[in-house]
Amino acid sequence: MNKLKSWINTIKQNREKDTLFRANEIQTNKLGTLILGISGLVMLVIIVLSYLDIFPVEEQTIVPPMLSGIIEVAILAVISYWVKFDTWWLRILLIVGMIFVYARIDSMLTHKVSMIMAIPVVFSSRYFTRHITVFTTIVSILIFAVSTYVGATEGMVDINIVTMAEGTTMTATGGFLGDAVINAGVADEMLRRNAMLYNYIPRLMMFSIIATISINLTHRGRDLIIYQGEQAIRNSRMELELDTGRRIQEAMVPNVFPPFPDRKEFDIYACMEPAKKVGGDLYDFFIVSPNHICLVIADVSGKGIPAALFMMASRIIIKTMAKKVSSPAGILSNVNNATCSNNKEEMFLTCWLGILDLRTGVLTASNAGHEYPFVKTPDGNFELLKDKHGFILGGMKHMNYEDYEVQMKPGSKIFVYTDGLPESKNSSGEQFGIERAGRTINKYKDGTPEEILNGVRKDVAEFVGEEERFDDMTMMCLQYNGTDFNDLTVDATVDNIKSVTGFINRKLDTAECSDKARKQIAVVVDELFGNIARYAYGKDGGKVDVIAELNEDKSEITIVLKDRGIPFNPLEKEEPDTDASAGDREVGGLGIFLVRNMMDDMTYERKDDQNILTIRKKLRG
Fold first, then answer.
1. Secondary structure of 558-612 in the HEC alphabet?
2. What CA–CA distance (Å, rounded) separates 559 from 163?
């Protein structure tokens, strides 16, 4: 008894641990319940047919075992649903129940259902547990031996196994040969003996082959499930790694827009859609000097992880070279040599690189085998600019590239992309094409760069439909706004002090400003904006409008800070006693004191529910 309990506990523990086979067991239990349900319907049909005298077996002989079989099936179905097909003993119950149900049918229909005894053992192999299939085989052999023995006299008579003395006369009174055999006075013992010899033993031979195959399939199937489970785990880990790689790749390129909220000279937006979790496309943009922004778009050969790794390495090289070399052609030449120097996998990339002078609007660019850009004038359409292509990067050392210039005016736009855009295919194999791409871009030409890219993405998605994408698609659009801006709106956070200071410094760059005045203005802006960020809005936060204007001869700057925070007039703050010691002096007020002394003028007003603080500073002398 203790050994039995220990064995049962072991089965329970192994089942709880083995979640993979537990899920399979639940599905197989559902299948077994379905098979038994169908068998119950078959037995019900047999009962009906026996009442119609279609079966050559008396009603009182066939109806009781069939009814008991239907009741057994119903009980097993109720138990299965009650335990939700999930308990360690249900599989044994279903297999044993199936054996007894089919043994009843076998005892009634005998040779008409000769291979019904194979169903339980074939079904048991679906659990992929060898000892269950072996157990089913042994029990089936024993139970179906009994059903064959009983069926020889109680079920349909198989005239092929009847032996009679020469001259025996048979009369079929009920219209069946079986009746003739019975009327001839055939001995029951002879029927049982012949049924076992000529019916059961041949069936047992065939059953043994089926059982052997089932046991082998059980073992092989279990190995396959284990392999599939391990493969699923590996795939899951791979998916996780690819997701991590995708997030790293997304973090490697600019993905926060607007990227430079204090720069009003341009508006830029970019997006990247890998064909796989990670891809080989690349876009980037970065400030290379206070008045220059570098734009990069590239397409690495290949797809997936190798292309993504090569892309990341290429991005680092491009950004490094862009800080050392001023011309796009020189940057591409250096990148090409660096890429070729240790390129054992012989990968390459196409690349378009441009540097925009934010003061003049002159875009200097160079192309290393990349797609032609689209350029739009302020009042025109996007037109394909067929620039001169240089050789791909990473293909051969010491290649030369050429610069060209495009004059961007306020309102001009440039749209660059990878070949995933024109080469996107629909279910008919038709490509989106460069002409359709041009029409689509112009469909959204009056929108912001973000609106243009989102519109193109939507139209491409509608064109492709459910078709799988085989190439990465990356796009970038920049609109040049010019430099004549006097205002800036930012969140009231300390982190934006740098953006506000940068905005004012760029305004000062257009005038002759002494170093002393520039430093004093920086200190004052830091103090005033910092106070607004810390105290004006509280936890909810808010916006600050910054206006910076130069007078006509650019000798004086006026800076206005507007916020909708709590009313506060810094001019009402009493000046600190600068003659007192630090210990005796009251806390606060020193910052405002410094602002008053560094600026030439300072005014405050509360208007339209806004704090409006204005400061003025002469820039020379």
1. EEEEEECCCCCCHHHCCCCCCCCCCCCCCCCCHHHHHHHHHCCEEEEEEECCEEE
2. 121
Q: In this structure, is residue 7 part of a structural domain?
A: no
CB atoms within 10 A of CB 583: 5
Q: For the chain, what is the domain count?
A: 3
Query: Domain span at residue 547?
Result: 487-618
Q: Say how far apart CA 286 and CA 502 lie, in whole Å.
A: 15
Residue type, 135: F
CA atoms within 13 A on the CB side of 565: 26
H or E stretch including 283?
Answer: strand 281-289
| pLDDT digit string, tens, across residues 452-511 | 999 999 999 999 988 877 778 999 999 999 877 788 888 899 988 888 888 888 888 888
Which amino acid type is present at position 288?
Answer: V
Structure tokens at 402: 């050429």
CA dist., res. 501 & res. 498, Å (int) = 5
Q: Name residue 350's beta-bridge partners.
A: 299
Helix (H) or strand (E) holding 480: strand 473-480
pLDDT given at position 470: 74
Q: Give the dihedral sign, CA 307/312/318/320.
A: negative
Q: Which of 196, 230, 264 is the last residue of a domain?
A: 230
* 597 belongs to a structural domain: yes
Domain end, chosen from 480, 513, 545, is at 480
**507/526 Cα distance (integer angstroms):** 16
Asked whether the beta carbons of 499 and 546 are under 8 A apart, the reply is no
Strand partners, 141: none
Task: Give the 3-state secondary structure of residue 380.
Answer: coil
Please tell me the distance from the alpha carbon of residue 417 to that of residue 428, in angstroms, as a whole number.
24
- Band of residue 602 on the pLDDT scale cut at 50, 70, 90: very high
What is the per-residue pLDDT across 150-161, written as a single tens digit (0 to 9) for each?
887 777 666 666
pTM, rounded to two decimals = 0.58
Instruction: Note the pLDDT of residue 171.
Output: 52
Beta bridge partners of 284: 296
- Strand, helix or coil at 117? coil
Q: What is the CA radius of gyration of the chain?
A: 44
Whether the CA torsion 157, 158, 159, 162 is positive or negative: it is: negative
Same-domain check for residues 491 and 381: no
CA dihedral 206, 207, 211, 213 (to 10 degrees): 20
Instruction: State both tokens at 38.
Output: 């169908």
If pLDDT is split at 50, 70 and 90, which confidence band does 13 have?
A: low
Read off the pLDDT band of 264 (50, 70, 90): confident
- pLDDT digit string, tens, across residues 85-107: 988 889 999 999 999 999 988 88
